[in-house]
Amino acid sequence: MAKIFISLEGPDGAGKSTVAAQLQKKLQEQSTQPVLLTREPGGSKISEQIRQVILDVANQEMDARTEALLYAASRRQHAVEVVAPALAKEQIVLSDRYLDSSIAYQGAGREIGIAAVRQLNLFAVEEILPSLTLYLDLPPALGLKRIQEQRSQAPDRLEQEQLAFHERVYQAYNQLVAEEPQRFVRIDATQELPQVVAACWQAIAQRFFTATSND
């Protein structure tokens, strides 16, 4: 059976975590394979500890390259400890963010170079790569507004960055989507949640469950 590894990407406030949780339920209903929902940074004990360091608002002095290296280290641990074993057991893996986040946020947002950050993260994950990436497309200003209005917890260290940072991230995501149309599917995340989930499911069904794509 083909390995199914799906990642969700997009700017802050696009609703990735909420959408991922609903897609997990839908996938479990439609497939006999177990479905693993995981996230980055995090997903394993060590990776979650690194996540706390990266996103802590007290760590404002963190160097951009330190940040990139920490993300790659967290991703490596997550990939080898969680993602690869799940795929080996023929589980469906659904990840809330993966290596494209670092390419966009550190490569473009932090302006340390898309090519360099891509190479670093390909080194980290080796051949453990998603076969489908759902890109939740949302203008960054709207995403930040959603965070301010809808979240109960305070924004993390990256969410607190200025709009110009998030605009660079957004442009990088659009570049990635254009470069790999066979892997990325763009989803309009300005829609209401049910429509976003439906569009994501249609993309998944067409790719992996053709017989049930109209269900």
TrEMBL record:
<keyword id="KW-0808">Transferase</keyword>
<dbReference type="GO" id="GO:0005524">
    <property type="term" value="F:ATP binding"/>
</dbReference>
<keyword id="KW-0418">Kinase</keyword>
<keyword id="KW-0067">ATP-binding</keyword>
<dbReference type="GO" id="GO:0006227">
    <property type="term" value="P:dUDP biosynthetic process"/>
</dbReference>
<dbReference type="InterPro" id="IPR018095">
    <property type="entry name" value="Thymidylate_kin_CS"/>
</dbReference>
<dbReference type="InterPro" id="IPR027417">
    <property type="entry name" value="P-loop_NTPase"/>
</dbReference>
<keyword id="KW-0545">Nucleotide biosynthesis</keyword>
<dbReference type="Pfam" id="PF02223">
    <property type="entry name" value="Thymidylate_kin"/>
</dbReference>
<comment type="function">
    <text>Phosphorylation of dTMP to form dTDP in both de novo and salvage pathways of dTTP synthesis.</text>
</comment>
<dbReference type="InterPro" id="IPR039430">
    <property type="entry name" value="Thymidylate_kin-like_dom"/>
</dbReference>
<comment type="similarity">
    <text>Belongs to the thymidylate kinase family.</text>
</comment>
<dbReference type="GO" id="GO:0006233">
    <property type="term" value="P:dTDP biosynthetic process"/>
</dbReference>
<keyword id="KW-0547">Nucleotide-binding</keyword>
<dbReference type="GO" id="GO:0004798">
    <property type="term" value="F:dTMP kinase activity"/>
</dbReference>
<protein>
    <recommendedName>
        <fullName>Thymidylate kinase</fullName>
        <ecNumber>2.7.4.9</ecNumber>
    </recommendedName>
</protein>
<dbReference type="GO" id="GO:0005829">
    <property type="term" value="C:cytosol"/>
</dbReference>
<feature type="binding site">
    <location>
        <begin position="10"/>
        <end position="17"/>
    </location>
    <ligand>
        <name>ATP</name>
    </ligand>
</feature>
<dbReference type="InterPro" id="IPR018094">
    <property type="entry name" value="Thymidylate_kinase"/>
</dbReference>
<dbReference type="GO" id="GO:0006235">
    <property type="term" value="P:dTTP biosynthetic process"/>
</dbReference>
<feature type="domain" description="Thymidylate kinase-like">
    <location>
        <begin position="8"/>
        <end position="198"/>
    </location>
</feature>
